Amino acid sequence: ATLNVSTTGGNASSPLLYGLMFEDINNSGDGGIHGQLLKNNGFQGDTPGLTAYASVGGTSLSQDATVNLTTAIQSSLEVFVPSNTTASVGFSNSGYAGVPVNAGTYANYFYIKGNYSGTVTLQLVGSTSGTVFASHDVTVSSTSAAWTYVETSFTASQSPDGDNVWQLLFDGSKVAGSSLWFDLVQLFPETYHGRFNGIRNDVGEFLEAIGGSFLRFPGGNNLEGGSPSTRWKWNETIGPVENRPGRQGDWNYPNTDALGLMEYLQWCDDMSLTPVLAIWSGLSLGGGIISGTALTPYVDDALNELEFLLGSTSTTYGALRASYGHPAPYTIPYIEIGNEDNVYSGCSTYASRFTAFYNAIHAAYPSIQIIASTSDASCLPSPLPSGVWTDIHHYESPSSFVSLFNEFDNYPRTTGYGIFVGEYANTKTDSGTQLVWSNASAISEAVYMIGLERNSDLVKLASYAPLLEHFGLATWSPDLVGLSSAPNSLTGSVSYYIQKLFSSARGDTIRAVSADVDFGPLYWVASSTAGGEWFVKVANYGTGAQSVTVRIPGAGGLGGTAALLVLSGSEGASNGPGDVEVLPVGSTVVGSAEAGWTFDVPAYGVAVFTASPA
Ligand code: AHR
To answer: Is ipTM > 0.90 here?
Structure first.
């Protein structure tokens, strides 16, 4: 195929087009990106019990709801030491399917109550091998009158696998016949940008490499709650973690909410992501829908959240933000009202619920871009208030994504209107079975993304979902990135590498392309920057390689050597932990703007061509 890229005209491309969508699903938050590695550390969620804890040296453990740390952290771990004990005893915590132990420094915090003066030993140990990867003594003096907080740090050596526990040991002879209590044990590896209570550095860097522009959070379903009272509540996710009660998340496991509102915004700041904040809209997943005047307290709550984020320090909630260490207001340019309000019987009341939130937020913060959580006109107010954008989600099969290539080509364009493709991913094969990571499915997403980019005057934001899974703890598959507790387990799906490829080659103007072939199996989009770079993205959703010549007639000053990044693999090729076989490979191609640059796009492949000024 010959692609002639026009050097005149074109549409402005959305500068934020490619971004990230995050919610705590598949232990992507607790046990995933959040740095805290120990599970059930505050006995949160519906049925915490002794999940993840085990006795060491013959102690008896119990969840003690009569000895609480705070009104939020309502239980503690009682460690009873039998009479006549003389050894070092204590308890262990096995983390999220093992504690990842890498060579490096760990910060460790815990609360202790009960009469004890002496050494406490903190260890990282192979649970099957018994190998000790870290052992650190700290001197503790605690009483039964009050909680004693201990913070310390230590270094660990590399564990060969993720089969590790963290354990806390003390001199059993000093406690024999009685108990000690522990609460909110916390273990952090190096965090991204060195933040306290931060996200993991390794995960942060892996996601940063995508080069996304925005972060949609905190859901997704996990915003909504099984019932209105169990929705994600912004004000229970802020301040010291000791004050965060956590909740039973919508993905059937406890959320500690240690990754809370301010941590999300710190993630945005540190990764230069524009926040897209989701606000609860009155819809919960169990069918509890709040509408009409009953919604007023929830609208007020959203305004309180915005005062917390945006208000001056002379306001009630702005002052609260300052007291938590962030006197400067945040910047919140985008707010989405709800999530998928077209489903779970939400549609019939969404127009009125949306309007209640929209009116209040828009009146107080007219410059915030409001996004409705569905593009289904039958669920939206009619007319849609001018300037409101709408969200659309696609979980598809590969052939559906290919046929959605032109979804937005003839979509109505109205001044001020924009589309957010807030979630998209292949979840099923063409025959309807559950899809697993595969090259061809990712290439079909690339075809769809080319369609989005071609229409990025209208499509302002787009994010693959879900972002992250803890392999083995996941209930939704596939996800863009996976990890486990084993070393170097962070793995990008083929879709991850495509997101990265597309994010890193963005023009500000989408250029018309005239071609000597129709779309299919080749799909393309061309763009340019004000700085004189030209990008052409080409996807081949076909079984044979295709020769492509890119010409940019009239583009002066370009170098003869252009850069090419090509990703390809067999239809079913996949990436897996420690086995990443499909990823972009760089090369150069020599040609000229007039004669063109010719290269092959392999079967089930994607090529990103970049011509730069000489
Ligand atoms: O991404 C997984 C889920 O898919 C989201 O939580 C929800 O919005 C959608 O149904």
So the answer is: yes
Residue 186's closest CA among 305, 37, 390?
A: 37
Q: Which of 506, 552, 524, 610 is nearest to 12 (CA)?
A: 506
Helix or strand holding residue 77 (H, E):
strand 76-80
For ligand 1, mutation pick of 224, 396, 464, 476 (most atoms within 8 Å of CB): 476
Q: Evaluate if residue 407 carries a pLDDT over 90.
A: yes
Q: Which residues contact 154 (CB under 8 A, 6 or more apart)?
A: 105, 106, 108, 122, 134, 135, 136
Answer whether residue 115 is part of any domain: yes
Could you count the other beta carbons within 10 Å of the beta carbon of residue 418?
A: 19
Check whether 578 has a pLDDT greater than 90.
no
Does residue 508 lie within any of the structural domains? no
Q: How close is the Cα of 57 to the center of ligand 1, in Å? A: 44
Could you tell me the pLDDT band of residue 345, with boundaries at 50, 70 and 90?
A: confident
Pocket test for ligand 1, best of 221, 343, 373, 477 (most atoms within 8 A of CB): 221
Phi, psi of 411 (to 5 degrees): -70, 140
Closest CA to 234 of 280, 297, 268: 280
Torsion sign, CA atoms 328, 370, 425, 449: negative
Q: Is 494 in the pocket of ligand 1 (CB under 6 A)?
A: no
Last residue of a domain, which of 164, 188, 212? Answer: 188
Distance 15 CA to ligand 1 centre (A): 25
- 423 CB under 6 A from ligand 1? yes
Look at residues 347, 341, 349 and name the one whose alpha carbon lies nearest to residue 373: 341
Name the residue at shortest CA distance from atom 8 of ligand 1: 220
- Quick one: 29 and 167 in the same domain? no
Convert the pLDDT of each residue in 145-176 to its tens digit: 999 999 999 999 999 999 999 999 999 999 99
- Cα angle 114, 115, 117 (rounded to 5 degrees) comes to 125
For the chain, helix (H) and strand (E) counts, in that order, are: 8, 36
* Phi-psi map region of 131: left, alpha, beta (phi>0 left; psi -120 to 50 alpha): beta
For residue 251, which atom of ligand 1 is closest to its CA?
Answer: 6
Q: Is 164 helix (H, G, I), strand (E, B) or coil?
A: strand
What's the 3-state SS for 217-276? ECCCHHHCCCCHHHCCCHHHCCCCHHHCCCEECCCCCEECCCCCHHHHHHHHHHHCCEEE
Residues 113 and 212 in one domain: no
Shared domain for 169 and 197, answered yes or no, is no
Pair (204, 99) in one structural domain: no
Evaluate whether 97 touches 85 at the Cβ level (below 8 Å).
no
* Beta pairing partners, 73: none
In a domain, 515, yes or no: no
- Residue 15 is predicted with a pLDDT of 95
Q: Answer whether 418 contacts ligand 1 (Cβ < 6 A).
A: no
Domain count, the chain: 2
Whether residues 210 and 132 share a domain: the answer is no
Distance between CA 275 and CA 214 in Å, rounded?
6
Between the CA of 155 and the centroid of ligand 1 the distance, in Å, is 39
- Residues 137 and 105 both lie in one domain: yes
Q: Which of 154, 170, 188 is the last residue of a domain?
A: 188
